[in-house]
Amino acid sequence: MSKHCTNPEIEVEQVSEDTIIVRFANEINPRWPLVIREFKKRVLNRWKNGIIDWVPSYANVMIQYDLLRLPLEEETEALRQLASAVAASDIVEKANTTKVLPICFDESFALDLVELCRSARKTFGEWKEIYLGNEYVVYAVGFKPGFPYMGETDEAIASPRHEEPRKMVLKGSVGIADRQTGVYPADSPGGWNIIGNCPLKMWEVEKIPSSLLQAGDCVKWVEIDLDVHREITERGMEYWKDWSRKEGVESC
Amino acid sequence: MLSVLKSGPFVSLQSWGEFGRMSEGVTRSGAMDEHAYGWGNHLLRNSFNVLALEITMGGFEGVFDVDTEIVVTGAEMGFKINNSPCRNWKVYQTMAGDRIELGVSAKGLRSYLSVSGGFDGEPGRSVVKGEELSVRSEQGISWESAVGRLAPFEFVPEYRSPVILKLLPFNTVKSDVGARQAVSDHWKFKVSSKLSRMGCFLEGSTIRLPVQGILSEGVSRGTVQVLPSGQAVVLLNEHQTIGGYPKIGCLTHRSCNRLAQCQPGDEVSFEFTTVAEAQRERREFLRFFGVKQESLPSG
Q1: Which residues of A touch B238 (CB under 8 A)?
Q2: Mean pLDDT for each consecutive 10-residue tract of chain B (299 residues)?
Q3: How far is the alpha carbon of A147 from chain B, nearest alpha carbon, in Å?
Q4: What whole-number distance in Å separates Cα of residue B17 and Cα of residue B234?
Q5: In chain B, which residue's Cα lies nearest the Cα of A26?
Q6: Backbone phi, then psi, for A31, in 5-degree steps?
Q7: Which of A205, B37, B110, B182 is the most core-located residue (most Cβ within 10 A)?
Q8: pTM (2 d.p.)
């Protein structure tokens, strides 16, 4: 899953009075979210008080800090060195959490799948096998609360997003845009190619954290049919856990 | 309680904001003009982050059923108590049955109605006609009277146009002499009517940058993005957490607070400032209002 990444230089830039961005690279590569996850542990360990927010995205992270308690602007060199050390380390390869999510490809959900199969010159079965055969890394969660940007889909099934976004995409819709895949946490407008639906809640306000997925998580998809989709929608995570246990599949 | 008799379309309960959740896609929200909001609570001797009503563009009428103390800060909206004109930035005693009124904003865009102890409720929630807002001071918390306290004139902005916004330039602009020149000499904007709690579009100069897009990264409050059309947009409290549009720099928090008071049509231009200067100002601001921010847990 991890490709060899060359990293010329790590950039550290002050982007507002209280916010610094650390850019590991300028590429989309599934290894970087794992590096950034490890980097977070080390940063919070080094500066135990004063980091207010942490926003990981692809190959960079934005750090907001408390100006009154932590003059992080004086630590840019320390941040760069820490980032370099993590980027170079091996330990990152092994540390990840895999979450298994259910996807239903029923035609009522998979609005763009026929077209995608046609342009990829694959049968429905072949296309599904390729999509399900990959493990995806979450690059970032944003755009809408709980929306995960994941990658990397196989080259063979990559597809550009629609020029005109749909006015309404159903909650739970699983989409593909270029070599990324994501899940809409709520009904919303959307431009991604819709290939199926995931009945798990990507966003639950009552829980902390509210987002099911976080940057650095690894995701595997397992196919379910319409009946199981309905059951999970009605009965929630517990049903999914039971079902996957019975099927001999790891769950979330 | 404050019974809401009339409410304009953009009235909501706001606190200082919610931090630490951008990794889930949740922005800080909170009061768009920290300065006016902060002064309201400060004058009343409230904690810095209790809920106030944020009234954008205007329109509000309510009646208290308890004795309390209130202050209106921010935009001039013809604040009245029982039909008597009152002034902003000053604490008034109100008695049960008193009617509070705010009209349309003449100068500035957003007003903050703060009450002793703050309002009860959910931060960010819209407030509509017919509601009853619970006020914390009615729960028997004793407080030292703040009646008559007034913000010193040097802290009361006049909300005049044109406005100079202070910008921290990003590396792409810093190293480009042509761009620096363009920012200070040529770029003149008017605030668009396309504004919201997410941000503010600027009309006028078109900005040409060498790149059309960048790898998506976190964006901070005040970031000035350039869309493919060349239009500039300033991101404010409810901005999307991550963005892939090129950015030229970031407004200081103080300039964000000032921009939050700009009406459509107001003229704005940018002036560069330094990180050191912006931080000095921000530290002073945070200290003055006693802002306490929670750290992320380690481990």
Answers
A1: none
A2: 96 97 94 98 95 96 95 98 98 96 95 96 96 76 81 95 93 69 75 96 85 87 92 95 92 98 96 96 98 89
A3: 7
A4: 18
A5: B215
A6: -80, -35
A7: B37
A8: 0.91
Tell me the backbone φ, ψ of residue A94, rounded to 5 degrees.
-90, -25
Taking CA–CA distances from B274, the nearest residue in chain A reads: A17
Q: Looking at beta carbons, which residues of chain A come within 8 Å of B218?
A: 19, 21, 55-57, 60-62
Query: Is residue A244 a contact partner of residue A100, using CB atoms and an 8 Å limit?
Result: yes
Q: Do A13 and B170 touch (CB under 8 A)?
A: yes
> Mapped to the 3 state alphabet, what secondary structure does A223-247 carry?
EECHHHHHHHHHHCHHHHHHHHHHC
| Residue of chain A whose alpha carbon sits nearest to that of B291 | A68
**Contact status, residue A135 vs residue A99, Cβ threshold 8 Å:** no
ipTM exceeding the 0.90 mark: yes
CB proximity list for A90: less than 8 A, separation 6 or greater: none
Query: C-alpha distances in angstroms, A78 versus A35, A47, A75?
Result: 17, 11, 5
Q: Which of A16, A66, A141 lies closest to B25 in CB terms?
A: A141
How many angstroms separate the CA atoms of A229 and B17, rounded? 37
